[in-house]
Design a protein that fits this description.
By secondary structure, the protein is an alpha+beta fold. Helix 4 links the parallel strand 15 and strand 16. About 25% of the residues lie in helices and about 35% in strands.
Length: about 375
């Protein structure tokens, strides 16, 4: 009889604890997740910090936190431990025991394998009693994002043509009309702006005359990246096909940084889109300028850039034909008659254009260079 009462008592205790945990297990439990840095470069390491708090007297026998994180964020110290499990390189699970009024902080070392914008704030929390009779699940959407900038290349990693091109950029005298330096007058030509008309000279000569202006130095560089691997490409590239484009992004970031450090205005354009804008027709264009935050703007755009052709590359080049006085570097894995036709249009508008060919694989080279 005593054994029966013991079993009944144990059963009642199990039911009571299951009821209490089921009703109050998630109450007053807080969870936070953040990266130790908001921005890092490709190949660098940082920490993913988890903080979970129990602000009540009732303990939580176990709490499981599950999420999906990109495999491009590689967690250190292997894949599994007693407290953490990683499967398929992207499904992460952490298990906690929470005592009354307690807090647990865990730090996971993460290596950033590839450029990109990563969201890690979608979390599923599950709590249960000692014998898993009653489980409760809660979904959280936290502010936990990371920008991984493209890796900046060393001098040895940049090939001779690109290094020579930037050397010319740093010392070349860039010329464009200065609105404050008038050097003379001449006959009007179709396309001259009305603001340049010299009305006194026009009245004196009886023919429309315009002001001619002197020139001033104004270095501006625009790197234009083509994310298509061929003229016929319509769909997205496979992962193994993207490495040539990724190297192009690294080259663009490196050259922009060196240009800004040399006092040259720098900008970036591509026929790709930002993360979350696929199919909208929006592309990336950051005009050339020199400011304290320009490099951060460029790197952020490059980190959040998605390798997806929003418009054809000739269409992008045609949209840039309103620019004047720019030194344009085109990075592309292929050339075509349509591209060269737009390059000629850019040169006719008063820009200098150089084309550097990228390989579709891991390496790259400049095997074709044209400068106005």
């Amino acid at each position: 009889m005593s054994i029966v009462w013991i079993l009944v008592s144990v059963g009642i205790a199990i039911l009571v604890q299951a009821l209490l945990v089921g009703l109050f297990g998630m109450k007053a439990v807080g969870y936070e997740r953040r990266f130790s840095q908001a921005r890092v470069y490709e190949g660098e390491r940082l920490e993913l910090v988890e903080v979970i708090r129990n602000r009540k007297l009732l303990p939580v026998p176990w709490m499981r936190v599950e999420s999906r994180i990109s495999p491009n964020l590689r967690f250190g110290r292997g894949g599994q431990s007693e407290e953490r499990e990683i499967s398929a390189d992207q499904y992460h699970k952490s298990v906690f025991f929470l005592g009354p009024f307690s807090q647990i902080t865990r730090r996971h070392e993460v290596t950033c394998l590839r450029r990109g914008h990563y969201e890690a704030g979608s979390v599923a929390m599950t709590s249960g009693d000692l014998v898993a009779m009653w489980m409760t699940t809660k979904q959280l959407n936290l502010d936990c994002a990371l920008d991984v900038y493209p890796r900046l290349l060393s001098e040895d990693e940049l090939d001779t043509p690109s290094t020579r091109w930037q050397g010319e950029l740093a010392v070349k005298r860039w010329i464009m009309p200065d609105p404050f330096l008038v050097s003379g007058i001449r006959d009007y030509r179709p396309g001259d702006p009305l603001r340049d008309v010299h009305w006194r000279a026009t009245a004196r000569t009886g023919a429309l005359q315009v002001k001619t202006r002197d020139y001033t130095a104004d270095p501006r560089m625009l790197v234009v990246l083509n994310v298509q691997n061929s003229e016929e490409q319509w769909g997205d590239l496979m992962d193994y096909e993207q490495e040539g484009i990724e190297q192009g992004i690294r080259i663009a970031a490196t050259l922009c940084q060196r240009a800004l450090n040399a006092g040259v205005e720098a900008g970036f354009a591509t026929n790709a889109c930002m993360t979350g804008e696929k199919g909208t027709g929006k592309t990336i264009l950051i005009p050339s300028r020199r400011s304290n935050d320009q490099m951060e703007v460029l790197l952020t755009a490059m980190a959040r850039m998605e390798i997806h052709r929003e418009i054809t590359f000739p269409t992008l080049l045609e949209s840039l034909c309103d620019l004047q006085g720019e030194d344009i570097l085109i990075l592309s894995t292929y050339d075509s008659e349509q591209i060269q036709a737009r390059v000629d249009m850019l040169r006719d508008a008063g820009n200098s254009v150089t084309m550097m060919m990228l390989e579709r694989g891991r390496r790259y080279e400049a095997n074709r260079e044209k400068t106005a």
